[in-house]
Amino acid sequence: MARLKLKKIEEYLQCVDGFVKPKILLEQYPTPPHIAACMLHHMQSQYEDLEGRFVCDLGCGCGMLSIGAVLVGAHFTVGFEVDGDAVDVYRTNVQEMELANVECVRADVLQLPQTKWAKAFDTVVMNPPFGTKHNAGMDMRFLEVGVKLATTAVYSLHKTSTRTYIQRKCQEWGARGKVLAELRYNIDACYKFHKRQSKDIEVDFWRFDVSDN
Amino acid sequence: MKLSTYNFLTSMAIKGVKVGYPLKLTINKKEVVETEFNATFVERLLPKLDWSAIYSAAQVVELTDDIPAVQPENIAENEQLMQKLHHLLFEIDVLDGQLECPETGRVFPITDGIPNMLLNEDEV
């Protein structure tokens, strides 16, 4: 498949359906199509980490990053998701876009390093639960799994306030982390505890080079 | 679920299970989809394949005429076999069926093409 232009990727991703009823405990925020498109375009144009690659999407939700990765040229993408409702939407999205090389496994992301998926993938992409409400540190647990599943690179989003901590942790795990961009991440008020209509949070877009471990 | 994914799935996470691999595959409904053959991709996947699982999958989908029981040497140089391997791994989509743990008999259903590998709290 010929590589798509950034604007085209975003157009396609706007057709990806989101969560029907987002679950607070799982921190189900959809990745906005614009942010997803920019992330994926960057992974390919700057690092060639998608075209022809075996890609994993951790906590894939409704498949925004999985589908985007394949549109940008990934040869095959597997998403892992714990929530059955999200998995159903993922499947519908993939079917409606008529993509054959992207699929989803319903599983607990945290159990994956102990399986045959360890070091199975070239590239891991994720928009992890930021670990704010009831599951503190969840984004770091996802990142640690990502480092164990990839052989080349892991891409992830984390709150800017945790930057120093992440830099230190990833070194412990044998990964070299680099912040590629600072984003203003807009989370629409989709839960009752969001008092304002829409709220921007500061988020870093990271690349972790895992080719040494 | 493509059979490439089947190659990686295990029931290792179940408490007391030692190997949990390969899972016993049963297919009730499948479809064949055409996807682009990429020799380099299949070649890079070879070291991650467990031939015993690949061959048992080939038995289930009745492709044992195409896939030998023992992994041949220099397989990457055999373009015809690489294409057959691509077909087995990426063009057969299991829509409905199940995966069974070889040690405990625990069944993981495959519904609408998605394997459900989730375990209950008392199983891990």
Name the assembly state: heterodimer
Number-wise, the strands of chain B total 4
| Greatest contact between two chains | A-B, 25 and 33 residues
- Largest sheet data of chain A: 7 strands, mixed
Q: Rg of chain A from C-alpha positions?
A: 16 Å
Computed Rg of chain B: 15 Å
Determine the CATH superfamily of chain A: Vaccinia Virus protein VP39
Structural class of chain B: alpha+beta
Strand order in the sheet with the most strands of chain B: 1-2-3-4
Give the biggest beta sheet of chain B. Answer: 4 strands, antiparallel
CATH top level class name of chain A:
Alpha Beta
- Strand percentage of chain B lies at 15-25%
C-alpha geometry of chain B: globular
Which CATH architecture of chain A? 3-Layer(aba) Sandwich
**Series of H and E elements of chain A:** HHEHEHEEHEHEE
Morphology call of chain A: globular
| Computed structural class of chain A | alpha/beta
Mean pLDDT of chain A: 89
The helical percent of chain A reads 25-40%
Structure characterization notes:
The complex is a heterodimer of chains A (213) and B (124). By secondary structure, chain A is α/β, with parallel strands linked by helices. Chain A has one domain: Rossmann fold (3-Layer(aba) Sandwich), CATH 3.40.50.150. Helix content of chain A is 31%, strand content 27%. Chain A contains six helices and seven strands; from the N terminus they run ααβαβαββαβαββ. Chain A has a seven-stranded mixed sheet with strand order 3-2-1-4-5-7-6, with helices on both faces. Chain B has a single domain, classed as N-terminal domain of TfIIb (Single Sheet), CATH 2.20.25. With 124 residues, chain B is of the alpha+beta class. Chain B has a four-stranded antiparallel sheet. Chain B has four helices and four strands, in the order H-E-H-H-H-E-E-E. Helix content of chain B is 28%, strand content 20%. The longest helix of chain B has 12 residues. At the A-B interface, helix 4 and strand 3 of A face helix 1, helix 2 and strand 4 of B.
